[in-house]
Amino acid sequence: MDTFKENSLKNKIPLKIYLGDLTYDTVTISAEAIPLNIGFVAAYCKKQFGPNVEISLFKYIHELEKAIKESPPDILALSNYVWNRNLSYEMLSMMDDIDSNVLKVWGGPNFPIDFPSQQKFMKKFSKIDVYVPVDGEVGFSNIVEKALRASSRADIKTQVLSEPIDGCVICDSNGKLQYTIPIIRIKKLDEIPSPYTTGLLDKFFDDKLTPMMQTNRGCPFHCTFCADGKDEVNQVNSFSLKRVIEELEYITKHKHDKTHNMIFSDLNFGMYPRDRDISKHLAKLQTEHNYPDFIYISTGKNQKEKIIEAIRILKDSMPLWMSVQSLDQTVLKNIRRDNISTDQMLALQPAIKDAGLQTRAEVILGLPGETHENHMKTLRDLVNTRMDEIQVHTCMMLDGSEMGTPTERKKWNLQTKFRVLQRDFAKLSNGKTVLEYEEVSVSSPDMSFDEYVDMRILAFVTYVTNRGIVYDPIIKFLREQNLDVFDYFCKIKDDIKNAPSSIQNIFEHFKDSTINELWDSPEEITENYQKDSEYQKLLDGKEGINVMYNFLAKVTAESMDDWAKYILEIAHDFISISEKKDIDWEEKFQDVSNFCRGTAHNTLGKDRMQTNPSFEFKYDVMKWLEETHDVNLDNFRLKYPYKISFELTEKQFKSVQDTLNVYGDTMVGKSKALRMISSTNLWRHPVIKKIEKNYSKIENPGSIDNVWYDHD
Predict the structure, then answer these.
(1) pLDDT for 5-24, tens place per residue?
(2) What single-letter DSSP state applies at residue 499?
């Protein structure tokens, strides 16, 4: 009997394959990356089978819905991540209702690593025919190879499921798992043709999606909370430098005019020698094409000296991530993690600042063995290490991670709740409401729920106040007055009753949202939001938000002036009661405070280009901020005062506005956009102006050229 492949060649009817990496876009784009993952799978498959396969790629829900109804494929294969699991499964189920002969394949890291949990997973998601864990190229091609042996379209499923498939997991007719080699990884990654330079991803260069790059795969670390911490992906494999550069050039040439950013899926960028060459080429693109403005990437967990060297020329367009998660040795041992020490980070800080790099530290709240005390110490140490930004995430229990296994759950007795993922909800054409949720750790034998809530509030204060450039002057000044900045952040939290009403409301609503976002089970969440009235709350951004990012956006978009007023008043009180303060601190404090007010003013308002605050300064605050060593502000007193106007450039405005347009002018949209905007583009820049009084040009303008100084 002729095989399907032979029939395809004779009749010129190739095997029709739909590959999808779906994103929600109900209120704004959720997973904004160009679908590089399915691009790799498609490119490898096309290489293996050429004209015998016809592959279409999908990112948007409505396009896939239309396609499976009007022209069903032979194989429908979708990605499975925590942010699209329920959506993908519903689409696969919809496909089964339309045409049960279609082979349904699922793949991705959101899959349990222990055998009993895998059995339960496949039973729960019973409409799935085949699951491809970890890297998908070889496993999926093995599926296609078997499908091409089928005698007819109707025989594909029987042919594929007749025996185990290398690189895949299937269930037999009795529901028993079948597999031989469940994980196959390609070591020489250039064996996978580039989905960019072959044109497979051209359709996704629109005004919504952000180009994604991958230069290597794998992670040498074994973090138990991460799906990339398992032993199977411990080896790091790389694409050639030549290929990486070709792809960067292709993306720059073909990207949409309104696209300003780039995403890298690398897990430890900067740790490898060739990353310096990649950074140099990115800098070259920035010089020649003004792209990319901002590069979202995870830099390496160790070897920070190498990372600094690799990314220093990119400055704040590629921040240096300090993904410490905790600085407590017991907690680190519990999660099988090696970290750079606090002492090492402190020692590197001058080099980091000299390189002009922005630093971002990531911490996870709710890890095994974490207490209120050791979490507070982690935050204090990071603040004292002078991180530019500290993000505290709640610990997630991920399928595909060691921590998500029954053994680890029992060992640590973490108490968990469930919450809706921000932006991840939609009503499908079949009338069903589908949404995503995550399971998070909110208490344990070592940490109460009330302590969890308190630390979330402190994390919010720290995130907003210690974020990038905007409040650097007051933080630096507090250190100059020999005060502990972490104690200052605690005072902001504890003295909230003295804040303006707008800030008190933000704190109150942040706390309520932190508590009320939590549910006891996924079933409760799903059932609740089937009601139109409850679903409307998701549409309105009243529920289903990322609490930390949403309230950051609320402060940034609506209340920056009030926030500045409050935290500067707290700083004034904090300094005034100190016995270590300078005698003449008040005059310097005024200049420092005005610099903060100017930088933070009207950050995202529609009229932001027309509202440029200006202040008179007696100290050269700009030069003082540029000084990477601890030099007192007294050394920067001006002979004559000058005026500074705080303004945004047209380039800043366009970059920020284009990013806001991608995600939408809602608070949910702004909360996402703020994560993709560099601090250089977000905040106002100081512009020196002459003072309109009795002035004359000084003979030697010193550090500032052509500035007019007031004689008074």
Answers:
(1) 555 544 558 999 999 999 99
(2) S
pLDDT digits (tens, 9 = 90+) for 352-408: 877 888 888 999 999 999 999 999 999 999 999 888 899 999 999 999 999 999 999
Inform me whether the pLDDT recorded for 710 exceeds 60.
no
Rounded CA separation 710/643 (Å): 9
Mean pLDDT across the stretch 135-160?
94
Q: Prior bond to 292 cis, omega within 30?
A: yes
pLDDT at 696: 43
Q: Give the orientation angle of helix 560-576 with respect to helix 472-480, to 10 degrees.
A: 0
Q: In whole angstroms, what is the distance from residue 18 CA to residue 395 CA?
A: 34
- List, as one string, the DSSP characters of 206-230: SSS-B-EE-SEE--S---TTSTT-S
Residue in the block written with tokens 């494999």: 237
Q: How far apart are CA 177 and CA 463, in angstroms?
A: 46
Cα–chain center distance at 357: 18
What is the DSSP annotation of 21-71?
EEE--SSS-SS-B--HHHHHHHHHHHHHHGGGEEEEEEEEHHHHHHHHHHS
Rounded CA-CA distance 293/261 in Å is: 6
**Alpha carbons 372 and 448: distance in angstroms, whole number:** 8
Of 52-61, 82-91, 185-194, 356-365, the one with minimum mean pLDDT is 356-365
Residue 699 predicted with pLDDT over 70 = no
Contact, 57 vs 20, CB < 8 A? yes
Pair of tokens at residue 441: 């750790």
φ/ψ (deg, to 5) at 625: -70, -30
CA distance 552 to 513: 13
Partners of 75 in the β-ladder? 17, 103
- DSSP-derived 3-state class of residue 380: helix
Angle between helices 560-576 and 547-558 (to 10 degrees): 90
Q: Are strands 103-107 and 75-79 parallel, antiparallel or unpaired?
A: parallel
Radius of gyration for the alpha carbons in the chain, expressed in angstroms and rounded: 27
Alpha-carbon distance of 307 to 377, in angstroms, equals 26
Q: Read off φ and ψ for residue 78, nearest 5 degrees.
A: -125, 155
Report the C-alpha gap between 501 and 207 in whole angstroms.
39
Measured CA distances, 565 to 33, 241, 332, 601 (Å): 38, 50, 39, 11
Dihedral over Cα of 121, 126, 127, 129: its sign: positive
Distance, in Å, from the CA atom of 125 to the CA atom of 585, rounded to the nearest integer, reads 65
How would you write 547-610 as a 3-class SS string? HHHHHHHHHHHHCHHHHHHHHHHHHHHHHHCCCCCCCCHHHHHHHHHHHHHHHHCCCCCCCCCC
**Residues near 135 by beta carbon (within 8 Å), at least 6 away in sequence:** 183, 184, 185, 186, 217
Residue 306 · residue 279 · CB < 8 Å: no
CA 515, chain centre distance (Å): 23
Report helix, strand or coil for 496. Answer: helix
pLDDT-derived band at 691 (thresholds 50, 70, 90) equals low
**Cα–Cα distance measured from residue 44 to residue 703, given in angstroms and rounded to the nearest whole number:** 58
**pLDDT of amino acid 250:** 98
Task: Identify the band that residue 340 occupies on the pLDDT scale cut at 50, 70 and 90.
Answer: low
Nearest alpha carbon to residue 92 among 105, 111, 74: 105
pLDDT, tens only, 214-243? 999 999 888 999 998 887 788 999 999 999
Please report, as a single letter, which amino acid is at residue 606: K
| CA 500 to chain centroid | 31
How much is the mean pLDDT over the chain? 91
3-state secondary structure of 16: strand
Q: Provide the pLDDT for residue 4.
A: 56
Indicate the DSSP class of residue 520. S
Residue with tokens 């100190």: 578
